[in-house]
Design brief:
There is one protein chain. The chain has 456 residues and is an alpha/beta fold. The protein folds into four domains: 2-92, 2-Layer Sandwich (GMP Synthetase, Chain A, domain 3); 105-274, P-loop containing nucleotide triphosphate hydrolases (Rossmann fold); 280-348, Helicase, Ruva Protein, domain 3 (Orthogonal Bundle); 363-451, DnaA protein, C-terminal DNA-binding domain (Chromosomal Replication Initiator Protein Dnaa, Chain: A). Helix content is 53%, strand content 10%. The protein has a five-stranded parallel beta sheet, with helices on both faces. Helix 20 crosses helix 21 (438-451). The chain is globular, with a radius of gyration of 26 Å. The N and C termini lie far apart (64 Å). Residues 87-109 have low confidence and may be disordered. The structure holds adenosine-5'-diphosphate and magnesium ion. Residues 115, 119-121, 126, 151, 153-159, 286, 289, 319-320, 323 line the site of adenosine-5'-diphosphate (ADP).
Length: 456
């Protein structure tokens, strides 16, 4: 009996997904990788090997526990309790109560239809921000209020913020989601004051009457005394009413040094997360995602993989630039009525592919990048271990240090704790291998991109 739950697990999860309209992103992020560890005393113990999941068991249990429990009952015809557990701890238990299913339809707010969780590529550099945004969207006003997302331009802040709006509306079309940029907020306020409204009642009314406030690029409000004051008025009203507030900015709250501490600290009442620049693999995945989207829109574009890697390797600034590059390449191919080749991409992107600002590359930095890439530790590289999984990355790190740091081979030897002859031998070994071993060559190209040196 007990192993029926295990045997029918996929079916159970599928049933839960269908029956309760669990969105793709929620399913893929929280549920897909769950499995049954054991069934004992009429309890199904659920776990996962993914730490992003186990560290969020509380949330998953609250949001989806009942769905899973009910699905188990439906599919196996037996009622079980469920427990989410990782190795150290048993977290949530779920008891029965009624669950509701939802109708999905969109209000047609001025949200960009492409800025959804489904279209957001998740990777190391945005995983925490993504998981946090999703949790906020699943329990608006409840767990992370406000949610404050910061990062440089073009890294996905607006996309992530609007994903929350879409998600909430899909689950509950009656929710009033307000997305504003901070300049719209400012202009609306100025307008209402100009109309002779000394205390802008209509303005306040409008912003108090919503369920979710998404306010983009808050940095433009900070320092404008009247707007700032009005914003915090709105903030307080919404916060007290437990309405979800999402804020984006180009910097963390602590960097708003001119802002009064009593205001600044409010930004941190919920949670603060940041977005960092994408690595090579993420850039490739994003380009592919954007291509898929273009294809869905009916544009039959096909682009070779080497064009994609060329773009991912050479465009380092941000995702918006990367996307612009893709559009540009496709447009040029259309005009010239040719296919998208690497030559065409090189030509189209010649002014985008510019060296980044100078930075100092050291062997230590390279060791870090190489270690991370091969999922080993920098200490492994510096150790005397001879297994191939460590020796090869070590040789590559020496080679790259020689190519990109300007350090002498003697100095490199000191840092790696190896004698001069060994260093030379290892460097030459990789030099000889590169032209012969395509996959080695590819790996090194990716690493060079990760190191992102100033040379072309
Ligand atoms: P920001 O608001 O941080 O300046 P945006 O949210 O406007 O950046 O993102 C810029 C562009 O990059 C958008 O077209 C967005 O869809 C895209 N983008 C950013 N991050 C991702 C991601 N992780 N996956 C897919 N597209 C992304
Ligand atoms: Mg933005």
């Amino acid at each position: 009996m007990s192993n029926t739950v295990q045997e029918k697990w996929d079916e159970i999860l599928d049933f839960a997904r269908q029956e309760y309209n669990i969105s793709n992103v929620s399913f893929n992020t929280w549920i897909k990788d769950l499995y049954v560890k054991k069934v004992e005393d009429n309890t199904v113990y659920i776990t996962s090997d993914n730490s992003n999941i186990t560290s969020n068991f509380n949330h998953i249990s609250t949001k989806y526990g009942l769905f899973i429990k009910t699905a188990i009952h439906e599919i196996t015809d037996t009622e079980y309790d469920i427990k989410f557990e990782n190795e150290t701890d048993t977290i949530g238990t779920v008891s029965s109560s009624a669950a509701s299913s939802k109708v999905i339809h969109n209000e047609g707010l001025p949200l960009n239809p492409d800025y959804t969780f489904d279209n957001f590529v998740v990777s190391k550099n945005n995983q925490l921000a993504h998981a946090t945004a999703l949790k906020a969207a699943e329990s608006p006003g409840d767990i992370y209020n406000p949610l404050y997302i910061y990062g440089d331009s073009g890294l996905g802040k607006t996309h992530l913020m609007q994903s929350i709006g879409h998600f909430i509306l899909e689950n509950d079309p009656d929710k009033k989601v307000m997305f504003v940029t901070s300049d719209i907020f400012t202009n609306e306020l100025i307008d209402s004051i100009r109309k002779g409204d000394a205390s802008p009642a209509a303005f306040r009314e409008k912003y108090r009457n919503i369920d979710v406030l998404l306010i983009d690029d808050i940095q433009f409000i900070i320092g404008k005394d009247r707007t700032q004051e009005e914003f915090f008025y709105t903030f307080n009203a919404l916060y007290e009413a437990k309405k979800q507030i999402v804020i984006t900015s180009d910097k963390p709250p602590k960097d708003f040094t001119t802002l009064d501490e009593r205001w600044r600290s409010r930004f941190g009442w919920g949670i603060i997360v940041d977005l960092t620049p994408p690595d090579y693999e993420t850039k490739v995945a994003i380009l592919q995602k954007k291509l898929d989207l273009k294809q869905l829109e009916g544009n039959s574009v096909s682009i070779d993989n080497d064009v994609i890697s060329y773009m991912a390797e050479n465009i380092n600034s941000n995702i918006r630039t990367l996307e612009g590059a893709l559009t540009k390449v496709i447009a040029l191919a259309k005009i010239q009525k040719t296919s998208v080749t690497k030559e065409l991409a090189e030509y189209a992107l010649r002014d985008l592919v510019t060296p980044n600002q100078k930075k100092i590359i050291t062997p230590e930095f390279i060791i870090g990048v190489v270690a991370e890439h091969f999922h080993i530790s920098p200490n492994d590289i510096l150790s005397s271990k001879r297994d191939k999984v460590i020796a090869v990355p070590r040789q590559i790190a020496m080679y790259l240090s020689n190519e990109y740091t300007g350090f002498t081979t003697t100095k490199i030897g000191e840092i790696f704790g190896r004698d001069h002859a060994t260093v030379i031998h290892n460097i030459n070994k990789i030099k000889e291998l590169r032209p012969k071993d395509i996959s080695m060559d590819e790996t090194i190209k990716v690493l060079i991109n990760k190191i992102n040196p100033d040379v072309e």
